[in-house]
Design a protein that fits this description.
single chain; Ubiquitin-like (UB roll); five-stranded mixed β-sheet; binds FE2/S2 (inorganic) cluster
Length: 134
């Protein structure tokens, strides 16, 4: 019986070879987010720590959130409505985001630009609805 309990031995499965860490390995999920699409259907997506909610939505293949400026806070095509119970978990809105949302015909009380919201464990369970196209 082998009593070697070194971390390398345990990870190797006993043969001394340590599995390689892939440099392109996906970061772990920080938040699971429910996204309601314009047709009313829900999609559950995952977001890694530090990515924006917009990036996570786009990475999940949800193209109706256009994000034309790529997250530079200059287009408002990443407009979402945040479920009311989540608004207090979000960072405050800055002036540029507020000005862009003012230009939307669909602005609501819980409107945010998803490119300004950073995923992290505090947003695990977040629910957003993609706003209608302006
Ligand atoms: S992606 Fe353009 S403002 Fe968010």
């Amino acid at each position: 019986m082998n009593y070697d309990q070194s971390p390398e031995r345990r990870r190797s499965g006993g043969d001394g070879r340590v599995p390689e860490t892939r440099p392109d390995a996906r970061p772990s999920t920080a938040a699971r987010i429910t996204v309601t699409l314009r047709d009313g259907s829900d999609r559950m997506i995952e977001a890694a720590e530090g990515v924006t909610i917009m990036e996570a939505i786009r990475a999940a293949g949800i193209d109706e959130l256009m994000a034309l400026c790529g997250g530079c806070c200059s287009c408002a095509t990443c407009h979402v409505f945040v479920a009311a119970r989540w608004t207090s978990a979000l960072p405050p809105m800055d002036g540029d985001e507020d000005d862009l949302l003012d230009a939307s015909a669909h602005r609501g009380e819980t409107s945010r630009l998803s490119c300004q919201l950073i995923a992290g464990p505090a947003l695990d369970g977040l629910r957003v609805t993609i706003a209608p196209d302006d």
